Amino acid sequence: MIEYERDGEIGIFTIASGKVNPFNPQMHKDFYQKLKAFENDPAVKVGILTGAGDRAFCAGDDLKTPREDRTIEEHVEKHFAAVDPDAEPSYPGWEREIHMMTRFKPIIGAVKGWCVGQGLVYLMRLTDMRISGESARYGLPEIAFDMAGGSGMAAISRHLPRAIAMELVLTGDPIDAQEAYRIGFANKIVPDAEVMDAAKALAARISRHSGRAIRIEMESFHRAERTDDETSYALTDHMFRLQRLASSKQVGTFDYKGKTGK
């Protein structure tokens, strides 16, 4: 299951589905719905994503979950069809909606133990900063099972230098917490017992700012890294003007001609 709780202005997601916290189709749907609720809640400014227990953050999708018996044609159709919100969750399914959703609230990853497969894909897609416990291990082993493609789903080249990313996905070998920190994948390494405290402390440093400012900074960052310099500057400059116009310090003094009054 995916647990979600609010701690003041912080929303905490916990993957809690057994010893290694694998995902199944229903969990992907629940996770999507909770992520949307988090994104739309004006009282919450920042999130934390973690896994229950000490053995794993998330070991990916549960390979023991039965797959539907489909013909090749039905299987192809399933991959191209939209998700039916009223149907019983199955593969492929709500994980695709999570990958495609728009998010402009920051989420901090708090990782202990194994973070592999879909767990690592979600960590890359859904977290913007990461606190790594000393026991953390990160990897994309899908290539060893003829299930490759996680590199694209995770947009791994946006998180790691090209040569390091290629080694990770083409060998399928995991890296430990020290290596993750060395290559800039984790912000900090702490003892496992301190992972959540460190994540909450970072979340508190972020949430002291206004929700509007956090959202604008997030949107500016995300859109700018996906476009050219001229377009990104024009967009962020426009967003900056709107923010200043809406600021309580400026309301009543802006004359709409680029000047401020007393």
Could you explain how this protein is built, in words?
The structure is a single chain. With 262 residues, the protein is α/β, with parallel strands linked by helices. It has 10 helices and 10 strands. The chain has a 6-stranded mixed sheet with strand order 1-2-3-5-7-10, sandwiched between helices. β2 (10-15), α1 and β3 form a beta-alpha-beta unit. α1 (25-40) runs parallel beside α3 and α9 (211-224) packs antiparallel against α10 (229-246). The protein starts with a strand and ends in a 16-residue tail after the last helix. The model is unreliable at 250-262 (pLDDT under 50).
Keywords:
6-stranded mixed sheet; 16% strand; 4-stranded mixed sheet; single chain; 10 helices; 10 strands; 262 residues; alpha/beta
Itemize the secondary structure elements and their pairings.
Blueprint: E1 2-7, E2 10-15, H1 25-40, E3 46-51, E4 56-58, H2 72-80, H3 94-100, E5 107-111, E6 114-116, H4 118-126, E7 129-133, E8 137-139, H5 150-153, H6 162-171, E9 175-176, H7 177-182, E10 188-190, H8 195-207, H9 211-224, H10 229-246
Parallel strand pairs: 2-3, 3-5, 4-6, 5-7, 6-8, 7-10
Antiparallel strand pairs: 1-2, 8-9
What is this entry, summarized?
The chain is an alpha/beta fold. It contains 10 helices and 10 strands.
Number of helices: 10
Strand order of the largest sheet: 1-2-3-5-7-10
Topology order in helix (H) and strand (E) letters: EEHEEHHEEHEEHHEHEHHH
Mean pLDDT across the residues is: 86
The major β-sheet equals: 6 strands, mixed
| Residue share in β-strands | 15-25%
Distance between the termini: 56 Å
Q: What percent of residues adopt helix (DSSP H or I)?
A: 40-55%
Mass-distribution shape:
globular
Strand element count: 10
Low-confidence stretches: 250-262
Please identify the structural class as seen in this structure: alpha/beta
Radius of gyration, in Å, reads: 20 Å
